[in-house]
């Protein structure tokens, strides 16, 4: 049988609207302000066929380089073989959302600045490096008064 390799082939789920987010598009989508240099995620909205980027770019993050009435230009780096190509997409605002990828970093910079200032005032040494979650501390488990429990699945029960 023939097999379609069309522009939207294989996007049945990627481009479908999310559960409980179907229907008319939230007005907030159109009230967001985009500026050149903003980091945005391309998140395609299947309900709008105009200005829809190619399926490869769904879920990719890029930087805004152009803003127009109802669309933004986004620069995205696409991996092609052994190199990255700069791709310039013009997509409608329905298909982008502000990215949260830099939020944590910016917050951390601000917090670190405050911590640094405080440390300078108090004259203490400061460690700002982040630490991954470490293994739990050693501790003793008492067996007295701490009886083992048998865990079994709860029998199936119809509850209404
Ligand atoms: C931004 O988009 C408009 C409309 O497509 C185009 O005329 C203009 O040249 C673009 N500007 C840049 C900097 O690419």
From TrEMBL:
Signal peptide: none annotated. It comes from the Eukaryota. GO terms for biological process: translation. GO terms for molecular function: structural constituent of ribosome. GO terms for cellular component: ribonucleoprotein complex; ribosome. SUPFAM superfamilies: Translation proteins SH3-like domain. Gene3D superfamilies: 6.10.250.3260, Ribosomal protein L21. Keywords: Ribonucleoprotein, Ribosomal protein. InterPro entries: Ribosomal_eL21, Ribosomal_eL21_CS, Ribosomal_eL21_sf, Translation_prot_SH3-like_sf. PANTHER family: 60S RIBOSOMAL PROTEIN L21. Belongs to the eukaryotic ribosomal protein eL21 family. This is 60S ribosomal protein L21. It comes from Talaromyces amestolkiae.
């Amino acid at each position: 049988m023939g097999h379609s390799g069309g522009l939207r082939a294989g996007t049945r789920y990627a481009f479908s609207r999310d559960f409980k987010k179907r229907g008319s598009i939230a007005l907030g989508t159109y009230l967001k302000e985009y500026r050149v240099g903003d980091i945005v995620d391309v998140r395609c909205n299947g309900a709008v066929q105009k200005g829809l980027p190619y399926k490869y770019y769904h879920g990719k993050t890029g930087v805004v380089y152009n803003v127009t009435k109802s669309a933004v230009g986004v620069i995205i780096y696409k991996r092609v073989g052994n190199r990255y190509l700069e791709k310039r997409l013009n997509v409608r605002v329905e298909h982008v959302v502000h990215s949260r990828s830099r939020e944590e970093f910016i917050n951390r910079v601000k917090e670190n600045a405050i911590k640094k200032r405080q440390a300078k005032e108090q004259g203490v040494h400061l460690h700002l490096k982040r630490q991954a979650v470490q293994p739990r501390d050693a501790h003793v488990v008492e067996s007295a008064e701490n009886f083992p429990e048998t865990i079994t699945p709860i029998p199936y029960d119809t509850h209404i």
